[in-house]
Amino acid sequence: MLKLQALHGVGPSSNVCRGASTVAPSTCSRTNLVARARTARKGRRLQQLQQASRSLLLQPQQQRCSHVCRATIDEPEIQELVQQLKQMTPDLPAQRPQLEKVIALIDEVNAQDPTKVPVEGGSAPYRLAYSRWLTEWVQRLDPKASDELLILARGKSIESWQLSQIKRDDYAPNTPGMRQWEMDRKKWLANRLLAVVKEAGYDDATQALIENVMMGKNLPDPRDVRKYDLIGTLGMVDYKKLQAVCMIQTLDDAEALLFLEKNFEEMFNRMPADEVATVCKRELSRLSQNGIITVLKQRWSPVQQRLLQKVLPVPYKFADIMMDVEGVAAASTHPGDWRYANFDYD
Question: Are 307 and 280 in contact (CB under 8 A)?
């Protein structure tokens, strides 16, 4: 009975531990060991509870970090407005002489670029080739692209080799100086493009829309846009602003896809995989749902495809995107999951 009481820390043995001399010292040592073991168990349980609570607190944060902002142009409430905008937009005429004129003027300016790049059949001025490639991608993403969108694709880098004359050293060596330098570069490009657009005979509304997109003035970010950002006076939807946001997103998608088409393979063969992943993650960070689907539908080598699957942004409801692209099996997990690394979707 004495041993049982000592084992549970009650009875006469508890008095012994407080200084009584009627029990053998071995009983006191056993009691101390049991007490220490119990304290250790409590400590481990407390640590486990703390870890569990910490994981529960971090879980929502990890979910937020694993997805881009949910308030994007891909949200259903925004897409509903986009569909309304498409229905309201009249059909484009078969011949657009003003557009042909402004594109010819932009190409004439960009043809003076001293930098040359290899193309099929020889070489071409860099800005001229780049603007043509970007226009082709915009037309693939949006077959009914408006004049403003095609002008932006063709002329957003018009005569940009002259930007070297706006030197960073002429501005303050701090953050405000950096921002002013970047703003002046944007303003120079916008004014250069607007001069060509005005020469082609476009009205003030078209020029204002192009200027707003080039300068990013009074426009929400398509990767962080909400419905109330597009509501104007008297609760009416500002479809002009929505059109500009859609243009920005289409241009972002086209630039990312052009980067993959022209630079990814060469960079993949020349640079280490981790550096390629870092660059791709930066260049592809602004892809929309439509852009991600387009990337996944391209033909890549198995190694390239595996790397791209790791660096693509993971938007909200990524499973819906994978279902659209490759079916139910792919929709059950992120394409970078090891369980589907060698899955034959055909």
Answer: yes
Instruction: Give the three-class secondary structure for 23.
Output: coil
Cβ(124)–Cβ(262) under 8 Å?
Answer: no
Is 264 inside any structural domain?
no
Q: Are residues 280 and 149 in the same domain?
A: no
Chain position carrying tokens 């037309």: 139
For 224-248, the pLDDT digits (tens) are 888 888 888 788 999 999 999 999 9
Full-model pTM: 0.71
For residue 307, the enclosing domain spans 271-346
Of 223, 253, 283, the residue at which a domain comes to its end is 253
Alpha helices in the chain (DSSP H): 2-8, 12-17, 25-66, 76-88, 97-110, 126-141, 147-155, 175-199, 204-215, 239-259, 265-270, 273-283, 289-297, 302-311, 318-326, 328-331
Per-residue pLDDT reduced to its tens digit, 243-263: 999 999 999 999 999 999 998
Total domains in the fold of the chain: 3
